């Protein structure tokens, strides 16, 4: 999906998406929900994948297992479409 496609799906401009990517804008919860809906990703998975390493109080092994499970869930959801 292009940046413009994503922006159109959430009612924002492509330049706004760029500002989000650069950390120059902080999304509110409503925007996060819109992004998740547009990307067809559960918000909990999105938040996990977006979290910083220092935010996760897990061992590297557990973090890797959780990340693998999240990607598997996304792949499974994609194959159901």
Short description:
This protein has 81 residues and is mostly helical. It has helices spanning 3-10, 14-21, 29-39, 43-50, 60-79. It has a domain at 40-81.
Structural class: mainly alpha
> What's the helix-strand series?
HHHHH
Main β sheet profile: none
Shape, please? globular
Distance between the termini: 16 Å
Mean pLDDT: 82
Low-confidence stretches: none
Task: Supply Rg.
Answer: 14 Å
Number of helices: 5
Number of strands: 0
Strand content: under 5%
Helix content: 55-70%
Please tag this protein with its features:
single chain, 81 residues, 5 helices, globular
Write the layout of secondary structure elements.
Layout: H1 3-10, H2 14-21, H3 29-39, H4 43-50, H5 60-79
Helix pairs in contact: 1-2
How would you characterize the overall build of this protein?
This protein is mostly helical and 81 residues long. The mean pLDDT is 82. The two termini are 16 Å apart. Helix 1 (3-10) crosses helix 2 (14-21). The protein has helices spanning 3-10, 14-21, 29-39, 43-50, 60-79. The protein has a domain at 40-81.
């Amino acid at each position: 999906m292009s940046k413009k496609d994503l922006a159109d799906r959430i009612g924002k401009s492509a330049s706004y998406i760029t500002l989000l990517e650069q950390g120059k804008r902080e999304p509110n919860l409503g925007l996060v929900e819109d992004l998740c809906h547009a990307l067809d990703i559960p918000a909990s998975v999105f938040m996990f994948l977006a979290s910083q390493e220092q935010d996760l109080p897990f061992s590297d092994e557990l973090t890797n297992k959780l990340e693998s499970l999240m990607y598997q869930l996304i792949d499974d959801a994609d194959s159901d479409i």
